[in-house]
# Entry
Amino acid sequence: MIRSYILACSTAQKGQGPCKTDIAVRLRHDLGTGEVAPEAILRDIRDTSGSLHLPPLPGRGVG
# Structure
């Protein structure tokens, strides 16, 4: 089982270049079946300085 985040933009302007990601989708990929399933959509993933802040992925130990 693999869990990961995919970063995305809620809006994009044509011709404006790369957008600043403001949404993260947490996905689960079952290597045995090949199934990929979204687990959560997270918004407000950046602080006021623009730094990315995402919660730890489930199933991962700390330390």
User: Anything to note?
Assistant: The first strand starts at residue 2 and ends at 8. The two ends are 21 Å apart (CA to CA).
